## 1
Amino acid sequence: MKRTLFLKTMALSLCLLFISGAFCAVSGAEGRAASNRYNIVLVVDSSGSMARTDGLGLRFSAIGKFVALLAEKGNKVGAVVFNDGIVLQLGMADADGILAKQSIVEQVEGIAPGGDTNIGKGLQTAVSMLNAGGNPGLPSLILLLSDGNTDLPTAEEVAQSLEDKADAIQKAMELGYKIHAISLNADGSANSAELMQVANATGGQFREVKKAADLDGVFKLYYALIYNAIVHDDTSEAFPASGEITGSFEIPSVGVEEVNIVLSGAAEDYSLENPAGRAYSKADIASFAYTAETYTIIKMTSPEPGLWKYSVKGVPGSRIQIDIVYNTNLSAEIASSPAGVTHLAGDSVTISVAIKESGTAIASDKYSGFKSVLTVAGGRGGMQSFDMGFSGASFEYRLVLEKSGFYTVKAEVAGEGYLLQTEEIALNVDSNPPVFEKNIEHTVLLWPFSGNEAEIDLSPGVSSPSGSALSYEALTSAFNSGEYYLSGSTLHMTSYSLSKGMFKMRAYDQEGAYCDFDVFVRTVSITLLGAILLLAGLLTALAAIGTATWLLLQKRFYGTCCVQQFDSDGNYYEESCRAKGRGRIKLSEFNLNSSGFDASKCYFQATGKRHVFLCMNESAYGDGRKGKKFFVGGDGFEVTVSKDEFSSKGIRARFISKLPGSAGGSW
């Protein structure tokens, strides 16, 4: 059934907040922008199975509430609806005001279920949309809902979808796009592990629900996680005989940008009373109430602090769920002074924590309801916590760095219903932390009838200036946890659910200092026919090399090869000469003992002409250049070859040709 989500344009600027009672507050979970706005793409499965797993279309109610709760201005939202292809693509657009939000939800809801499931195409399209149309000043995320797994008619289509999914995951990891995933496993046929892998790889959240009715709670949870919202489940009950439910709530003096009162059920009438005692009827509120078939959302901005009251009326015996969601814009920021320097043991550093509202520091008189606790880890010690004092402009603590090592510092600010977490900062005290060298790329050939395990050396990624041993940790991985394990500095791959994937690795030294780098793993599947063709090509190449080697060995020496050794003291030894019919003459056949070269691996190569080549097993200096192969003319001219450019130790080689004419020749 078609639902109408919104009725009228919001006009009144008020706000509500509920603090009393149980609530869930999550802060800083997304590394959000100061303005608490995002680029969001909704990716919604519309395959045929959705008619069975969510026949009532409850997903649209959950999605509608999520979109309606967004701040009135500042978010950019797009949508992708997929089955075996893309059936709806709404490009990134400003979700400002009631009409824009209404349009997004109604278009998503208008797609009837049908077809198969192409998760890879849906995700790849969403990533491309964020790249092309997202606001570069905002963080980006994808919210994915599916009731199944990649399921397409042919093996080729499945392979392409999995390739698209691998590509989308890798790009999302590289660009910092988090993918939150919901598996609607109503009939037990969904492959929740596939969606969990997508979320885990990108640092997103994953939830599985067994019935469509639970989607509402998951979308509410995700909204709280993403938007730093405080969600209060006020009541879920039947209307009493009087037909009226009343309650009260208090708005704090700081940090509340908007409040949404969500009435899920049949609310016939409702009213509000502000802290000054002024009453607002349903008619007063109608201009800023979003009304759908099964719920109403009252959205108000710029809250008035203090105690509010509400009244909701309905048919006695019918049920109502009242949720109050506070869109907050409060954050805590940590800093150190002095910053960006290497400290010495015994130094002290001032740690400050400021509370900010939409990125602007709050007034000093608003700190009275808060307290801050500093947590310090490392420095060759355990973890310690300290109560911070108030300096008049921020919380502060004078930290003494008693020992050398690597410290991490963060703080928690609590008060007025908030629990704010700062980012973590690092303090280097007279130590040499690991240094980034390079990201690592590794290709694995997947052979038929083989386990295809691979070992990837992680040591080139990071170096340790202090010389201490490094330990490694996979922070995130596109591959499932059962597909790899770490042993020392080696990443072992045992199986491959993706054709390519990325690891975000961290290397620690013994003092806890760390450095991050990436590992890219790509697989190339070798089919049985491909393996046969590759083997045939290899045999052909070996035959060609063998033929070339045989031909070289058949070339004649038309002369004598001579070698004289000299050492670093300027001593020259007796010259030794050898003659041979064809092929090669190893230097080990001459009287050499301390030339600095492995004589058994160096040789003269015949050419059948008035010159030969002196071939070394490693780079050497000779004939005015560095190389492994040196031209030796046939008129007895000497070529000096040494281990270093100063000719401190080595050999002098010459070739006495029996053929008439100029030495000539070319490389």
## 2
Amino acid sequence: MKRRYISLAFLAVFIYILLIALLVRFESASPDASITGPGGAVWYTLTTLTTVGYGDTYPVTPGGRVIGALFQLMSIGVLVTLISTVLSLLRSRLLPLLMLSFKKNQHWYIFSEVNPRTRLMAEALAKDPAAPKKHMIIFFDSGTGDDGILPAGVRTAFPPEKLLAFKNGKGSADVFAMGDDQAENDRLAWTLKDLPCRVFSMSSFEPDRLSDRLFLFDPHDVCARLYWHLYPVTSPFETIVLIGSGRYADALLEQAVLINVLAPDQRISYHVFGDFTDFRNLHPSLGQIFDGSGDAADVLIFHDEPWNSDLTLLKNADRILFCGDSADESIGRAAALRRACPLKGRVFVRGAAPLEGFVTFGTPDQLITPDHIIQRRLNETAIKLHNLYHDQVAGSPAWEELSGFLRRSNIASADHLPVKARILLGGDVPFTPDTIARAASVYEHADEELLERCRRIEHERWMRFHLMNNWQYAPVRDNAARLHPLLLPYEKLSRADQLKDDYSWKLLTELAKKGKEG
């Protein structure tokens, strides 16, 4: 962009010098000319372009008058440009800074650009009951954004780092890097991670160590988590068909394996159609999850044939997910299947808007919310979960000392809590303070048979998470090499290690206590 402006400036200077030279050449041939040299020509152009027009110099030859007419027309453009530049400076720099200077002590929500995602997030924050009462929504606008911004939003040409410098540590701030360019999101996140603000960056990158002020979210993972919680698997014997290729399909399959752990003797069947080559290569331990070495005996089948080659399977499936990266392709396939045959189960389509006749998921208004982007509740629950473990296991690190992987491990465990509540209460129940309290009560009064069942479920879930991240068994733990001595069937664990899985269920009691206090 900078080179383009420099090139345009050189071109403008070249054209100006050329017109001056032509004007001098035309006028110098007339004895009546008032423009006889370059100095007079420059003076004439300046008075014309600035619309001053003293009248002391003017062209008299036909060629000179043509050049003069060009400068007169250009003077209108200069005037319009000057006015628009002044207005732009007022709108994007001076007025916003003047407004923000009076509100430095308020909480600022700063967005790295203007796009449909940031507009949705700004609208959600404006209505968020958990947001600070006094806050400002600020958009950095590089000049390429749209004009449909919240009336309450301030639009400025100053990037987030300069806005934070202007704020100078007064009040608090959250910065949202939610552009289409992940590399730019990452760049901004790492630029700001040590400044007095929280940074929420839309990125699939995960460093070994995360700053306490840096939060990364992957929209594909958010979509997958949201789907399995909105439409949970309640039967341990479901047949599920996933159709699609790409990052959404990969994330939905991965989260299905991690979240859908319901019973020690479950047998959920996953039939997957699409290109999952990268997924299979990156998760070589899938065979250990689905070979029956644990209590669960789920089935995962990758089909190489076309998705519509087995209509009997599709007709009898409990649910079918059309979940490719191309929403249009998913919609077309779902419509074709519905026309072709009657279906036993529900059909889910990842799309941009609700569709009649299908259950649509992953729409922008579902994904772009404070709960899913900031993940306030999930992160708080994960921290509580780790603190329970930290109190139970001597020498374990504090939350601030955990690697990115171990934080994700706690988040995955916290993400399974709604499933635990359904296991204890039976059926499809919402994860509300009331159900949390009831589930906690059931667990507190559970007999040994139920407690043992709960421990087996949690160990299976824990093993799946580690195997999906390519950990392997070894007698001695080595985090760097991803080796762990507890990656064994439940029966082979010591009694002390079996009892460690209780802490993840006890979190329901802690959450119930918090609900009563709140």
